[in-house]
Amino acid sequence: MRECISIHVGQAGVQIGNACWELYCLEHGIQPDGQMPSDKTIGGGDDSFNTFFSETGAGKHVPRAVFVDLEPTVVDEVRTGTYRQLFHPEQLITGKEDAANNYARGHYTIGKEIVDLVLDRIRKLADQCTGLQGFLIFHSFGGGTGSGFTSLRFDGALNVDLTEFQTNLVPYPRIHFPLATYAPVISAEKAYHEQLSVAEITNACFEPANQMVKCDPRHGKYMACCMLYRGDVVPKDVNAAIATIKTKRTIQFVDWCPTGFKVGINYQPPTVVPGGDLAKVQRAVCMLSNTTAIAEAWARLDHKFDLMYAKRAFVHWYVGEGMEEGEFSEAREDLAALEKDYEEVGVDSVEGEGEEEGEEY
């Protein structure tokens, strides 16, 4: 059935998960208690919800998700919140004391105590799947738990799944950090005056203001782009918008990769959360792209790390939890190597390699 299991780790993962499942329920017409009024015949009708929800004999829809945190307060908000009846109690796992923003506590000390229970719950969820396509892991890179412990199926013209993303976005095993961009990010008042055509929202994806990571793709080169459209979108408009983008000087591709765009179109219009800040729009696009510009984020991290590590600031907290100082310099070297990998990928191929090209065909 192409199921996805979501794993929400730490405060950030759990809070994003809360918002995510609220949206999934709205998308599929599922009530906070797990019932789906539109689905009169159990097991019949539209079963697009099966990717993210499993259906019980009583007709209740249960998220294929696990919430994990090393301290209970954030997950308790799920246990007592609007969607408390939606989740199976065994899927909400908490420890007694938190990782106190310390990676080593999450990785070595407290995380170790809880990991077997978590793996067991995930295994149970996986056993319920007939064709598991992958896991979605929600966590922050900072903090202690998230750092140390750690497409909806509607009718559409072009449906894409997780394996297609991997195939199209990852040219080398280490170059696997996609940049996510969403458009239109717009308020209701502003949307009233905007046209938001397919061409406009496609162009917006290449603007740094719409990105989820702070870097400037205009200074880097793209290896691949996956565009996922929702709502009133036809392939003809998408092709025209992409053709225009390919002619722009500011959008450069590496020379060893043809200007490949992977496109998915889903006719279900974007859903909004009541009382949310985003406007209800007829069409939206999410772009996942692999660009060498993301190395800017690594460079920023490296610089901040070097400043603190030169003074050995905060290091004692990590060493006290069983980490060794050598792990810091090892991780720093690994990130420097990753930066270099991205740099090499962006360099134009040597012209001498072109001599054999005639034989390929």
TrEMBL record:
Residues 49-231 form the Tubulin/FtsZ GTPase domain. This is Tubulin alpha chain. InterPro entries: Alpha_tubulin, Tub_FtsZ_C, Tubulin, Tubulin/FtsZ-like_C, Tubulin/FtsZ_2-layer-sand-dom, Tubulin/FtsZ_GTPase_sf, Tubulin_C, Tubulin_CS. PROSITE patterns: TUBULIN. The lineage of its organism: Eukaryota, Metazoa, Spiralia, Lophotrochozoa, Mollusca. It holds the Pfam family Tubulin. PANTHER family: TUBULIN. The keyword Nucleotide-binding applies. Residues 342-361 are annotated as: Disordered. Transmembrane segments: none annotated. Keywords: GTP-binding, Hydrolase, Microtubule, Nucleotide-binding. One of its GO terms (cellular component) is microtubule. It catalyses: GTP + H2O = GDP + phosphate + H(+). The keyword Cytoplasm does not apply. GO terms for biological process: microtubule-based process. Tubulin is the major constituent of microtubules, a cylinder consisting of laterally associated linear protofilaments composed of alpha- and beta-tubulin heterodimers. Microtubules grow by the addition of GTP-tubulin dimers to the microtubule end, where a stabilizing cap forms. Below the cap, tubulin dimers are in GDP-bound state, owing to GTPase activity of alpha-tubulin. SMART domains: Tubulin, Tubulin_C. One of its GO terms (molecular function) is GTP binding. Dimer of alpha and beta chains. A typical microtubule is a hollow water-filled tube with an outer diameter of 25 nm and an inner diameter of 15 nM. Alpha-beta heterodimers associate head-to-tail to form protofilaments running lengthwise along the microtubule wall with the beta-tubulin subunit facing the microtubule plus end conferring a structural polarity. Microtubules usually have 13 protofilaments but different protofilament numbers can be found in some organisms and specialized cells. Residues 158-303 form the Tubulin/FtsZ 2-layer sandwich domain. Belongs to the tubulin family.
